[in-house]
Amino acid sequence: MSNEQNPETLTNDEAGESTEIKAVILKAISEPDFKQLLLEEPDKALQEFNLTEVQKTLLKTLSAEDLDKLTPENLDEYFSADAAVYTPDEGAIMEDFETADEDEIL
Amino acid sequence: MTTGRAESVVRLITRSDEELVSTIALMSQAAGKEQKIRESLRQQYAAHPEQVEAGLSLGLFELLILMRRGNLADERNANKAVEILDHVLAVAPESWLVRVLKVTLMLMMSDMYRIEHSILKDIDLLFARQQGVEPHSYFITPYILCAHYYYLDDAAKTAVEALDRGLKEVPHEPVRVLGNLLSLPLLNLFSRVADWDGAELRASLSRLRQVYFPHLKIGQASGASFV
Prior knowledge:
The structure holds two protein chains of two kinds.
Chain A: H1 20-30, H2 32-40, H3 42-45, H4 53-59, H5 64-68, H6 75-78, H7 91-96, H8 102-105
Chain B: H1 15-27, H2 34-47, H3 52-69, H4 75-91, H5 96-108, H6 116-131, H7 141-152, H8 156-169, H9 184-192, H10 195-212
Helix pairs in contact in B: 1-3, 2-3, 3-4, 3-5, 4-5, 5-6, 5-7, 6-7, 7-8, 8-10
C-alpha cells in the first residue's frame, strides 16, 4: 500500500477545526466595526485572513441583511452542507429491520 | 462493478477542500442571491478554467441547490455543472472529491441526461484509486454511489451487495471530514428508494448510516437559509 499521500490530506482527527471563512463571519457578527468594514471595504477587511479569490468574491455578495440573519448559535447550521435537505423518515423501515449491533454489521 | 489496478496518484481531501465546502455551503443558503452567486462563480471559472477551485465551487454550488430543491428544476444548471466538473477532471484527474461530486450530480439527473457508462467508469476509477492509499472512512462514498447506480438500473440486489462490500472493506469510523457533505450521496439514495421495492436496500443504508454518519438527521430538513 502506498504511503505517498499528499501531506495536506485531511484526516478525521484533523477535521472540524474552524475554517477561515467561518472566522470572517464570526468576526463580522460579533464586531460591528468589522462588519461595517467588510461591507464597505471588503478587500481591506479581508487582508488579515488567508482566503482564496473565490472566497473573497463570494463574501462580497453578502449584504448587511444577510449578515444580520447569522448568529453564533445558528452559524453551524449555515455552514452545514446537508442543511434543508429533506429525506423521508427512516423510522418506518427500521421498525421492520432492527438496529444492528456493530458485531452484526459485517 | 470492477476494480482496476491500484492507482498511485490520488488527491484526497485537504484543508483547502474544507474551506471551499464551508464557503459554498454558506453561499448556497443565501436565498434570493442564487443567480448572483452563480454568475460570480461562472465568472471566476471563465477567468481561471485551469484552476480546480473555481470549477469545483460551481459544481458543488449547483449540487447543493439541486439537493435543497428536491426536484430537477435546475437540471440545466446541473448539466452545465457536470460539464464543468468533467473539465476540472481533465485538468486534475486525480481529484477524489471532484469525481465524487460529478457522479453524485449525474445520479440525480433524469435518464435523458444521465450517461450511464460514464458513471460506472468514474465509480470504478474511484475504487481503483482508493486501493492505492491508506484507507479513510469516507472511502465508503463510492460504494454508496455504486449502490445508487445499480438501484437506478433495477438491480436492487446488486446495490445491497455494493453496500455490504463497503461495510466489509472500509474502516468503521464516523466520517468527519467536510462537515456533512459526504452524507449527501446517502441522503440522496435514501430519498430515492421506494418503499415497495427497496426495503432491504433502505435497511442496508440505515445500517451504513449508523456506522459512518451516526449524527445524520434523516426524516427532517433543518431548514437553515437566509430567508
